[in-house]
Amino acid sequence: MPIYEFKCNQCNTQFEQLCRLDWQGTVACPACGSKDLAKALSAFCSPGSGGGKSCAGCAGGNCGSCH
Ligand SMILES: [Zn+2]
């Protein structure tokens, strides 16, 4: 599963969350509990997309599922 970076629209907390592609409604801010989040990092690392050779969203090296 990809790691997404989120930014809370309520308190501007940034955090990373390992989550499914359909994260909306399932991820909440750890600081205030809001689900009004902006995804700060677009991680294209769903298995099977684009052959999975390179993953621009996983440049941090934390995505082991797409290589
Ligand atoms: Zn928040």
3D architecture notes:
- This protein is mainly β and 67 residues long.
- It has one domain: Rubrerythrin, domain 2.
- Helices cover 0% and strands 21% of the residues.
- It has no helices and three strands.
- It has a three-stranded antiparallel β-sheet with strand order 2-1-3, with no helix packed on it.
- The chain is globular, with a radius of gyration of 12 Å.
- The termini are close together.
- The relative contact order is 0.27.
- Residues 48-53 have low confidence and may be disordered.
- Bound molecules: zinc ion (ZN).
Task: Give me the secondary-structure topology.
Elements: E1 3-8, E2 14-18, E3 37-39
Antiparallel strand pairs: 1-2, 1-3
Give a brief outline of the structure.
This protein has 67 residues and is mainly β. It has no helices and 3 strands.
Percentage of residues in helical conformation: under 10%
Please name the CATH architecture: Single Sheet
Enumerate how many helices there are, as a single number.
0
How would you spell out the order of helices and strands? Answer: EEE
Net shape: globular
Could you say which small molecules are bound to this protein? zinc ion
Strand arrangement, largest sheet? 2-1-3
Unreliable runs? 48-53
Round the mean pLDDT to the nearest integer and report it.
Answer: 74
Q: What is the fold-level CATH name, i.e. the topology?
A: Rubrerythrin, domain 2
Largest beta-sheet details: 3 strands, antiparallel
If you compute it from the alpha carbons, what radius of gyration comes out, rounded to the nearest whole angstrom? 12 Å
Secondary structure category:
mainly beta
Q: State the separation between the terminal residues, measured CA to CA.
A: 12 Å
Strand content: 15-25%
What is the number of E strands? 3
